[in-house]
Amino acid sequence: MKYLFVHQNYPGQYLHIVRHLLKNPANDVVFITEGNPNHITGVRRVVYDMGRPRRTDLPSNVRDYEYALHRGERVAQAARNIKKLGFTPDIIIGHHGWGELLDLGDVYPGVPVLGYFEFYYNTEGYDVEFDPEFPMSENYKPGIRALNAINHAALALGQHGQTPTRFQLGAYPAWAQSQIQLLPEGARLDICRPDPEARKRPFAIGAFKVAPSDKLITYVARNLEPYRGFHTIMRALPAILSARPDVKVVLVGGDEVSYGPRLGDNNTWRKILTAELAGRYDTTRVLMPGQLPYDVYVSLLQRSDAHVYLTYPFVASWSLREAMATGCAIVGADVEPVAEFLTHGKTGLLAPCLDPARLAETVLHLLDSSKLAQRLRRGARSYAEKNLDMAAHIKAFETRIDEVIGAA
């Protein structure tokens, strides 16, 4: 079977399915992407270059869409090059978010496309205006609607779609949902697994040491930013650290902005919140190490006494699934995408995403109750074993590929 994958940040969501497909030597996997250092043995990678930056001479509401159309053209040109070399896939699989798939039907007419629909932007009821601390401008709605231009162009292809959660599917209009199949994602249960001995031995990240007698609070996000509740956990730290002298905290994440308005003047949310809270907590008990190697990240989850996962009503991170698989005692944001995974009191605790006092109270309650923590850890791991097994999800993905090819 010949597979063409497309994702501007190789391999994106497709690491595990690609590795699985490569176990069959009869499969031929080609991946079109922008350049990065990631490597998977057996994949023939085709790198495209955007050739120019995003235009600034256009109205702001159309810049992203124009750039997506340009990206679609660049990907199509890369596809034409490999077609000339004799490669025609049986299926094209990729992420619709950046416009990469929009023109591939012109290059490979009749080849089915299975596209990832990640999120449909809504002006009410989701992430937009969820946080009153960051109000939108008076005329924000046209800009939000414009963000769906790529969604609409992708849906107009009349191809096959998939998305991993009920929350993400429900964000799309009813008329669009018939094109999108729920295809859940999982976690590597053999790697992300509990380690009962982890809290019995010393743990360290560099010079930051956590003794077995310490209580460790963990938080993980791609980047430290309000969309993932970084401002809330930072503002909860003074109360938590004052109440429990035995607490250490590790906040994992980079300093870029993945979601929401960009910061100027080389500023970061880490700098902003650290300055706001200067003198209000013991900084020697808090580590912000940036992004960690994956094995260190897993070891951190295994050592965690209370893991905090916060987000606006937006796409849930892979780290939530991995924390559940690791058997963390989780305090999660009480929003729909998190509640899809966490059941309060059984597989985690839910707290308001934007209330530092309630977050601190919930975390301290968890730290004070070893029986509750043990029940939540067992519940999270049990949920993961029943619902997040990567092997089962890969099998379901492969079945969907066969269905799409059969329907072509």
Describe this structure in words.
The chain has 408 residues and is an alpha/beta fold. It has two domains: 2-186 and 390-407, Rossmann fold (3-Layer(aba) Sandwich), CATH 3.40.50; 198-387, Glycogen Phosphorylase B (Rossmann fold, 3-Layer(aba) Sandwich). It is built from 15 helices and 15 strands. The chain has helices spanning 15-21, 60-84, 104-107, 141-146, 149-155, 166-171, 174-177, 230-243, 269-276, 294-303, 318-326, 336-339, 356-368, 370-387, 390-407, and strands at residues 2-6, 28-33, 44-47, 91-95, 113-116, 160-163, 180-182, 203-205, 208-210, 215-223, 247-254, 286-290, 306-309, 330-333, 349-351. The strands form three sheets. A seven-stranded parallel beta sheet has the order 3-2-1-4-5-6-7. Strands 12-11-10-13-14-15 form a six-stranded parallel beta sheet, with helices on both faces. Strand 13 (306-309), helix 11 (318-326) and strand 14 form a beta-alpha-beta unit. Helix 8 crosses helix 13 (356-368) and helix 11 crosses helix 14. The longest helix has 25 residues, at 60-84. The protein is globular. The chain starts with a strand and ends with a helix.
* Mean pLDDT, all residues: 96
**Helix coverage percent of residues?**
25-40%
- State the shape: globular
Helix-and-strand structural type: alpha/beta
Cα end-to-end separation: 15 Å
Q: What fold name goes in the CATH topology slot of the largest domain? A: Rossmann fold
- Architecture of the largest domain, CATH level 2? 3-Layer(aba) Sandwich
CATH-defined superfamily of the largest domain: Glycogen Phosphorylase B
β-sheet strand percentage: 15-25%
Task: Give the CATH level 1 class of the largest domain.
Answer: Alpha Beta
State Rg: 22 Å
